[in-house]
């Protein structure tokens, strides 16, 4: 790596700041996609349907995972290694549960005849949109789980403690972001039929 | 700061690989971006000469084309019609993304941001290195599409569906398009990695005293460019992902039940190709400013240095850059006036588009006001910077024509559009980039470029650029459509044959001029005159670094900044420039008692030499001196 630490002039840590910028970029990606949804819906020939209730469970799961993440982060600040491990593990489990729940949501949609690919039913592109948005979001959740796993490994190596919270605090920020991103997407997709 | 000393202590031996290839030093990465950009630029230019030959002599056989492209793409020395489209597409893609986005921003953001704000390197040198490697990989993937059997993408650099969404639409829509999309995804990753780094560096790593209002305008421009990229590229990524779903999985985001001659009606229904245009141009328009803003920033700096005057209206320059950056996000609809858009929406886009003329005019006015009665030094860089101002005016004016929804109905997809964007975005940005290369070449390589060759390069490029692109406006007004392979079949365009020949000859002339530049660039690296630390007597911090261009930039402490970047010809000082790291007069007075007398002596401003054609020629003929 570099031979010298970047000199700072008393501002926010550049790595953390870079993460915020990355999140801003991700936010733009999803504003683009949800805007595309609105524009396409405005064109007509659009099948409106209610988002299956299982996606509400996903939302609750992802909110719970944010709470366990806070638990892990607070434990790190208090030097509670066991708490870090437990909190991170719980977050990973909840994150995995979120993925499964999303997948089940797609199965439910499929049972209703709403597939990702709906040839001959142009109006059902609404379902393609929902699945595409959820899938692209899921990639970000997956990246988050990998990030959490790295943190967990680091906690076993005693690399995360009171005096070294930068990594876990960045992970914390990322995880809350992708969680609340889903909350936004869920609300968007929930209210979209009424636009 | 002690880290610099510590840095010198554990300075490790650098191997060839770590110094030139896998380098994390921002100065080396900037050179990597520059050289890759120059190579891509040459390829893009060669393509343009090939299709210009076709336009001027549609019936003539050029054995060289067959030799170069092979008998498949240029049978009997004539370009194949499909390959003509592919060349136009690749020329656009290469020039817009690879030369003028990565080549320009990548080179100068990397070189200038840390040096001009007083930082030892980027916020994350590692990410910076990744940014270059993703860019190189992306370039290789894009170029490799030239060699696939069905040819490269041929649907235009805007990759509108259905040509881009339907692999069987035309030969280039198959593998070539897949490679194009892969290359652009890699490019977006590179550009985001770079952009995040640039923003983070400017906001977090400025040296002591370097407030945002003391930043050189280059830094402002590159910073705002990075912000634009960060906010717009993800939207293209979103649009591109939906396109990939349409291509790969058979969804119908953009495809509807259109009828294909070969395959009958498509299985897709209900997709909206216009949706893609919205997503594309939401990036596409900011992209235009991503291209031009670094060039404007470079020009601001070069014009101020070589006029030996403070830049006129620094605050106005910054605000107009911000205004351009903000407006660029709400004008994308002007690329889509003829898509059947709601006229009210069209009117909104018309108004926002024309408002851009205001900050652009502010910038132009400020350039001219800076030049006005300046003690102008016509260095090579200065010539190119003034060339940029010329292109920015002549291309910007035609932008006002095209921004009018009603006029655009007539002019859309004609050569008027081609002429407009080549002048305002292509030539202006290339001239900004060349100006930057001539100006900061001493910083990159420690040597000066050859001055007479620079003038030859400038005049031939400048004249040929106008000869190629200016007549296009008249062709467009007469309704000549763009992207046509040959006008021989359309006798109504026959009057333009001779014009096409002139344009092609001018393009070849422009190409030859670039060979002069290449020779000058590469030979000056080795045999150029040594430049010294501050050859242009500029104020900014990059000229305070030692000539050896060390890792970490400054051997001792990072200089502290006491003033803005444009203290030129201040009558209070002996010299006509005062570098940013020189303490204020008050501080100076405590150290040296003599400063009062200095003030009186230098208060008398020498009368600037009148600029006549004679003095201009006299100055150009001088060898490498300033």
Features:
heterodimer, A: 195 residues, mainly alpha, Four Helix Bundle (Hemerythrin (Met), subunit A), 5 helices, elongated, disordered N terminus, B: 626 residues, Cytochrome C Oxidase, Chain A, 2 domains, two-stranded antiparallel ribbon, 2 strands, 63% helix
Describe the protein:
Chain A has helices at 14-42, 54-77, 81-111, 125-156, 166-191. Chain A starts with 13 loop residues before the first helix and ends with a helix. Chain A is mostly helical. By secondary structure, chain B is an all-alpha fold. Chain B has 2 domains: 24-527, Cytochrome C Oxidase, Chain A, CATH 1.20.210.10; 541-621, no CATH class. Chain B is built from 20 helices and 2 strands. Chain B starts with a helix and ends in a 5-residue tail after the last helix. The model of chain B is unreliable at 1-10 and 588-608 (pLDDT under 50). The chains are: A mainly alpha (195), B mainly alpha (626). At the A-B interface, helix 1 and helix 4 of A face helix 1, helix 6, helix 7, helix 8 and helix 9 of B.
Summarize this, please?
The complex is a heterodimer of chains A (195) and B (626). Chain A is mostly helical and 195 residues long. In chain A, 73% of the residues lie in helices and 0% in strands.
* Rg over C-alpha atoms of chain B, rounded to the nearest angstrom: 25 Å
Structural class by helix and strand composition of chain B: mainly alpha
Mean pLDDT of chain A: 90
N-end to C-end Cα span of chain A: 51 Å
Give the oligomeric state. heterodimer
The percent of residues in helical segments of chain B reads 55-70%
Q: CATH superfamily membership of the largest domain in chain B, which one?
A: Cytochrome c oxidase-like, subunit I domain
CATH topology of the largest domain in chain B: Cytochrome C Oxidase, Chain A
Secondary-structure element string of chain B: HHHHHHHHEEHHHHHHHHHHHH
